[in-house]
């Protein structure tokens, strides 16, 4: 059974690229275009991993991450924060919110696929 990945990002070109990349890597993929939709899909789709943009409408990626970590049934879902904000303080904020990894945009597709594979194998 394929592992499930939720892509939560409001940038259409990034969503299309990530969706293609994750599907090609054998993952079952769903898309959320804002923070509220992301939380709704976490509840209904129960992904194994979430690729989570920081700056989204209706709830930030940080808020989504914190909400996910507050729910015991979602604590094992891996979270990879994707952000153009690469300052040390931002990375620290993402990890403090509960992210398993923080990837700075632009990123290498190969490195992202490797990171997702590592997290899902753990």
UniProtKB/TrEMBL annotation:
**Where 4-aspartylphosphate occurs, residue numbers?**
53
InterPro entries given in the database record: Bact_response_regulator, CheY-like_superfamily, Sig_transdc_resp-reg_receiver
Q: Which CDD domains match?
A: REC_OmpR
The Gene Ontology biological process terms listed for this entry are: phosphorelay signal transduction system
Q: What is this protein called?
A: Transcriptional regulatory protein WalR
Q: Name one Pfam family in it.
A: Response_reg
SUPFAM superfamilies reported for this sequence? CheY-like (SSF52172)
What keywords are annotated for this sequence in UniProt? DNA-binding, Phosphoprotein, Transcription, Transcription regulation, Two-component regulatory system
> Which taxonomic lineage is given here?
Bacteria, Pseudomonadati, Pseudomonadota, Betaproteobacteria, Nitrosomonadales
Which residue intervals define the domain Response regulatory in the entry? Answer: 4-120
List the GO molecular function terms.
DNA binding
């Amino acid at each position: 059974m394929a592992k499930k990945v939720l892509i939560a990002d409001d940038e259409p070109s990034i969503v299309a690229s990530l969706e293609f990349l994750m599907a090609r890597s054998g993952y079952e993929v769903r898309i959320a275009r804002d923070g509220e939709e992301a939380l709704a899909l976490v509840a209904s789709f129960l992904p194994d991993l979430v690729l989570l943009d920081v700056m989204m409408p209706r709830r930030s990626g940080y808020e989504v991450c914190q909400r996910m970590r507050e729910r015991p049934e979602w604590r094992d879902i891996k979270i990879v924060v994707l952000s153009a904000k690469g300052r040390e303080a931002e990375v620290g904020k993402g990890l403090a919110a509960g992210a398993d990894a923080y990837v700075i945009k632009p990123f290498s597709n190969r490195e992202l696929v490797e990171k997702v594979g590592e997290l899902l194998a753990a």
